[in-house]
């Protein structure tokens, strides 16, 4: 049996560190409070929750979901499912108000929206289950439902599921919900869902075969897209096509802006970056680049 979720983390905008153009995130809450003996707490998770940087917004953006993959020093992967939404705040300082808005800002404080991320960290790759669980926690929080958030998180982090064997696991977070997990027949089989089919739809058969050959011949493969979830799915699909071979080089489906220098690494890799950095990545000479939005 394996623990379904190792950590639940709430990451928010850090209003105390706003000296640079890009804001920073900070961990607001985490459960459990102490690190687990068998699983280290993911360091630097704040960077990966907002890969494009922490920015305040003038409008409330729609919630987004994507999965970040972190690899520890023991080469064990940790799947960090992130659900990000925006909460209204009042900007009393006026430091982020443009010159044209200064006069009105003196009369009425400007309303801004700050990003906040709910994160589930697990050694199991069940993106759809984690999307449903985080969506339920988000709904209870936003709609102020008569359900204890502490109970939801405790039930989630205390749930154990078979690592493999093809069996089904039915559980509830305690909000009248029912979550069903279908375990793989073997723990070495990749969990792909619809990611492989989507990759062929986005790039075509010939381009996918070219990427497959590039990975097998130890080339650098870089995806870029305006969708973080699309990046995660594409990297998962390309790696799964190698089965039963194992990819032993850097595998970073979503690379934060602060770590773009990793792209200059001399080793092969499979990496995904947001399309806002397309001008930076096109300067790379020894990297095979795939546009998932083209």
From TrEMBL:
GO molecular function, one term: guanyl-nucleotide exchange factor activity
Superkingdom of the source species: Eukaryota
Pfam families: DENN (PF02141), uDENN (PF03456)
Protein name: UDENN domain-containing protein
Record's GO cellular component terms: cytoplasmic vesicle
Keywords: Guanine-nucleotide releasing factor
Coiled-coil boundaries: none
Segments forming domain UDENN: 7-294
Cited PROSITE patterns: DENN
InterPro entries on file: cDENN_dom (IPR001194), DENN_C (IPR043153), DENN_Domain_GEFs (IPR051696), Tripartite_DENN (IPR037516), uDENN_dom (IPR005113)
Keyword Manganese among record annotations: no
One of the GO biological process terms: regulation of Rab protein signal transduction
């Amino acid at each position: 049996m394996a623990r379904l979720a190792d950590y639940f983390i709430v990451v928010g905008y850090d209003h105390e560190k706003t000296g640079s153009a890009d804001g920073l995130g900070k961990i607001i809450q985490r459960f459990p409070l102490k690190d687990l003996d068998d699983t280290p707490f993911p360091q630097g998770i704040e960077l990966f929750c907002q890969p494009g940087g922490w920015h305040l917004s003038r409008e409330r953006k729609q919630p987004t979901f994507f999965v970040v993959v972190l690899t520890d020093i023991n080469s064990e992967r940790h799947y960090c499912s992130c659900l990000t939404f925006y909460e209204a705040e009042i900007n009393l300082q006026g430091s982020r108000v443009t010159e044209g808005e200064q006069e009105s800002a003196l009369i009425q404080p400007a309303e801004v929206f700050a990003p906040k991320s709910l994160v589930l960290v697990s050694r199991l790759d069940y993106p759809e289950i984690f999307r449903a669980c985080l969506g339920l926690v988000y709904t209870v929080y936003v709609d102020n439902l008569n359900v204890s958030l502490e109970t939801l998180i405790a039930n989630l982090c205390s749930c154990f599921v078979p690592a493999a064997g093809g069996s089904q696991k039915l559980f509830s977070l305690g909000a009248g919900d029912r979550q069903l997990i279908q375990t793989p027949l073997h723990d070495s089989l990749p969990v792909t869902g619809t990611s492989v089919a989507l990759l062929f739809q986005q790039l075509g058969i010939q381009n996918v075969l070219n990427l497959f050959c590039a990975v097998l011949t130890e080339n650098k493969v870089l995806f870029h897209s305006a969708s973080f979830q699309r990046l995660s799915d594409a990297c998962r699909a390309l790696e799964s096509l190698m089965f039963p071979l194992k990819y032993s080089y850097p595998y970073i489906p979503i690379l934060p802006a602060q770590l773009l220098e990793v792209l200059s690494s001399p080793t092969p890799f499979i990496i995904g970056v947001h399309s806002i950095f397309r001008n930076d990545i096109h300067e790379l000479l020894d990297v095979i680049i795939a546009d998932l939005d083209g």
